[in-house]
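Run log // design_07
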């Protein structure tokens, strides 16, 4: 993917230095300690949990490196669908199942929309794990002829309850950033009550005619994505 100018704007030097010098070593040290613990733990269920934590720490190190050097998210090197699938797997917790499905005919979008939809998947699933008190979460990535969209819905307490209020009214930094970025790309981001209860984060991005996929016939597909 080619980085987009809007999504890879460099951070101020003092912030980049603080992230690199203060947060970077701690995350790298955490990854090493988890790797050592992984070799010492032999009980299968616990060993699997430690391995998952070590992999997640490694992804955070890579993500921090991407932020500091104004690079696109590392996972997007594999494509948007595998990156969102990985974000969904990383969000699962005991008692919370995160499903992922793709609707429409998949194709690889430009860097700007891809990065924003990936960020939306991370932000949406993180909000579900932190605030929603949900047991189920569903992430839908929709490929249309004229637009791309991503929805993160859950069966939790809904965005009007106090635990979600800051996110719903835009005071949450993550959602406010998604809204600004979506507007820059001509789209929109909303966090609203889901029709069946819970909440739904929706990000929709229109596609300029020049980058719309060419098809000889209309095709609709839906199903859980299995990387």
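design_07 sequence
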């Amino acid at each position: 993917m080619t980085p987009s100018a809007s999504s890879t704007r460099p951070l101020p030097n003092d912030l980049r230095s603080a992230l690199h010098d203060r947060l970077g070593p701690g995350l790298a040290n955490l990854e090493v300690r988890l790797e050592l613990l992984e070799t010492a733990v032999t009980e299968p269920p616990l060993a699997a949990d430690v391995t998952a934590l070590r992999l997640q720490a490694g992804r955070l190190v890579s993500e921090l490196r991407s932020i500091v050097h104004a690079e696109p998210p590392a996972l997007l090197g594999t494509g948007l669908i595998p990156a969102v699938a990985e974000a969904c797997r990383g969000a699962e917790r005991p008692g919370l199942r995160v499903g992922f499905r793709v609707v429409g005919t998949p194709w690889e979008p430009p860097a700007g929309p891809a990065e924003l939809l990936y960020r939306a998947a991370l932000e949406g699933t993180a909000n579900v794990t932190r605030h929603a008190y949900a047991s189920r979460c569903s992430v839908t990535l929709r490929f249309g002829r004229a637009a791309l969209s991503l929805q993160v819905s859950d069966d939790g307490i809904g965005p009007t309850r106090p635990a979600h209020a800051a996110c719903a009214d835009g005071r949450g930094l993550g959602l406010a950033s998604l809204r600004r970025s979506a507007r820059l790309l001509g789209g929109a981001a909303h966090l609203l009550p889901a029709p069946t209860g819970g909440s739904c984060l929706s990000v929709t991005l229109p596609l300029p005619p020049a980058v719309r996929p060419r098809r000889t016939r209309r095709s609709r597909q839906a199903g859980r994505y299995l990387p």
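Helices lie at 13-40, 44-68, 80-91, 111-132, 162-168, 173-184.
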